[in-house]
Design brief:
- The protein is of the alpha+beta class.
- It has two domains: about 55 residues, 2-Layer Sandwich (Phosphorylase Kinase, domain 1), CATH 3.30.200; about 160 residues, Aminoglycoside 3'-phosphotransferase, Chain: A, domain 2, CATH 3.90.1200.
- It is about 35% helix and about 20% strand.
- It is built from eight helices and ten strands.
- The protein has a four-stranded antiparallel β-sheet with strand order 1-2-4-3, covered by helices on one side. Strands 5-8-9 form a three-stranded antiparallel β-sheet.
- A hairpin with a 2-residue loop joins strand 1 and strand 2.
- Helix 5 packs antiparallel against helix 6.
- The chain starts with 7 loop residues before the first strand and ends in a 13-residue tail after the last helix.
Length: about 240
């Protein structure tokens, strides 16, 4: 269930307009819908979608080109004051996304681009061990599922320690919102000291917001620009 194929991203020009096209067999029209939702319903800097096309089993998403450099490129040479400002920007934008709510309480949690019975594996980058994921709706059910997976995948960890970890990761009062869930430095575009775009929403998911920190990429953890927690081990 865990998808490994890499999408292609290219800069192109069409009728005098510079834009970016993302395409491939793993690209989904749903990602374009997520971009549109994020742009129209939040204050987060999400690229505009110009159009979506399908050619055989490949999907093409044509979107706004936003000039700048990635946070990954800039981070080593950025002073502490600018880092703090960028962090404030990032938290503000992510909170704006998190404020979005699923269409209904019965909406399955997990990655939006995946089928309902693969959404959780897609969100948490889990290798397939079961024929399908359970359909989980709501924060309480999500907590229960995470606890079950932790106990099953980390057999050397005491059950009481798992419960403490779950309480730390996903407080009971957590509401479900839209999370980017791939928020590493390469997916943040910066210009003139400000974040001007969040890109690459292929892992976007309905989930409790605190889960976003736990599933961010290793590059972001190494850069230490948010309190990431590594909480899932893939050992069977």
């Amino acid at each position: 269930m865990f998808w490994e194929e890499v999408a292609v991203v290219k800069r192109i020009e069409w009728n005098g307009l510079d834009m970016v096209v993302k395409y491939g067999r793993k690209v989904s029209e749903v990602e374009a819908e997520v971009l549109k939702m994020g742009r129209s319903e939040t204050a987060a800097p999400v690229p505009k979608v110009y159009g979506v096309a399908r050619d055989g089993d490949e999907v093409f998403i044509y979107q706004e080109l936003i000039n700048g450099r990635t946070l990954y490129e800039l981070w080593p040479s950025t002073d502490s004051s600018t880092r703090g400002s960028l962090l404030c920007d990032l938290v503000h934008h992510l909170n704006s996304l998190h404020a979005l709510r699923p269409p209904s309480p019965a909406t399955p949690l997990g990655a939006l681009v995946a089928p309902p019975d693969e959404r959780l594996s897609r969100l948490l980058r889990l290798d397939a061990e079961l024929a399908s994921d359970p359909i989980v709706c709501g924060s309480a059910a999500f907590r229960d599922w995470i606890a079950l997976e932790l106990k099953r995948r980390t057999r050397d960890v005491l059950a009481a320690d798992v419960e403490k970890l779950i309480d730390a990761l996903i407080p009971l009062e957590q509401t479900v919102g839209l999370v980017h869930s791939d928020m590493h430095g390469g997916n943040v575009i910066v210009r003139d000291g400000h974040i001007v775009a969040l890109i690459d929403f292929e892992y976007a998911a309905w989930a409790p917001p605190d889960i976003a920190a736990a599933v961010c990429g290793s590059e972001a953890r190494q850069m230490a620009w948010t309190p990431f927690v590594t909480f899932l081990q893939r050992s069977a």
